[in-house]
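call fold target=Na+/H+ antiporter NhaD/arsenite permease-like protein
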Amino acid sequence: MRTAIVGAVLLVLGAVAVLTGLLPAADALALWDRVWPILLFVVAVTVVTELAAEAGVFTIVAQQTARWGRGRAWLLWLLVAVVAVLSTIFLSLDTTAVLLTPVVIVLARHAGLDPLPFALTTVWIANTGSLLLPVSNLTNLLAQHAMGDPSPIAFAALMWAPALVGIVVPLVVVFVISRKRLLVRYVTGQEDGIEDPVLFWVSAAVVVALMPLLVSGIPVWMPASGAALVLLVVFAVRRRSVLRFGLLPWQLVLLASGLFLFIEALHANGLGTLLARVSGSGESPLALLRLSVTGMVGANAIDNLPAYLALEPAAGSPVRLAALLIGVNAGPLITPWASLATLLWHQRLTSFDVRIRWGRYMLLGLIVAPVTVILATLALAATA
């Protein structure tokens, strides 16, 4: 509810800016024309993943992963990391943070393992693993537009090296700090069956079909909306009780809308000029590092989405936009509010009675975030 309140306040402030002329109405309309497909995609893909979770798709994936782990905790953790990477890349970071986190907690507990290494893996990969494709993160969709709408393949060609670094570095850190808990053996608990085979197989087929469509070059809101519509119809026939307003990420949409409008109003009144001085210019390795680190600091100070929006005009080129994405995607691992996915992840941990002290989380983030951002930026400079 706090998310919705903040979003509503920002929307009101943005509306006041439009009414008073601080933000020209034409600029506000141009902003809406840019962001409505992104917001529609967020709604649609959230509905798809929530309904797929209700059908048991992610639980069955977790159970199969446990079998593939062959009783070795390190192998199970590595397989969970692979699932988290695929989930983040193709279904967005929020899917990993919100839906995969409960699955891996239950999986670890059934195997008699400490769930914290698995939970930490999901939240770090949800953020740092969201660099490869436009659909992986809301900031990527914004950057794709600013880059001139390159295809998903062209976007990935620019981002593959920093994306690889963003996956490998956090996983190495998790393994090093959790090695005593991962170098053990486990025995799987009793597995859950498929409650409704029709819902399960239709949902699984929709998710599998959606993944290649999201990288096909079609505007992502189209296949996501189609997939959501198919699942809504099937659930309306098979399990109508699941269809509730809570399926819609209305608080996230309200917050994003408010941030879009508020930051646009600030840009219309000189914010861009100030940030251009801070973030510098040019595409040398040092210039890209300056921009990505600025993005990381901004994300941990105020949240990654407004940090991206504030710095986007100062980027100016595809390579610099890529550097900015590294900062705001791989960097928000320090403060709890740096990424909405982190806050959603922590809510899931609390609901499953898994405790992690924010002090410890921030200390670990102070280690892994700068290393990841710096190495990923250097990888970008070497391959762009």
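return ok
Residues 2-383 form one domain. Residues 132 and 159 are 5 Å apart (CA to CA).
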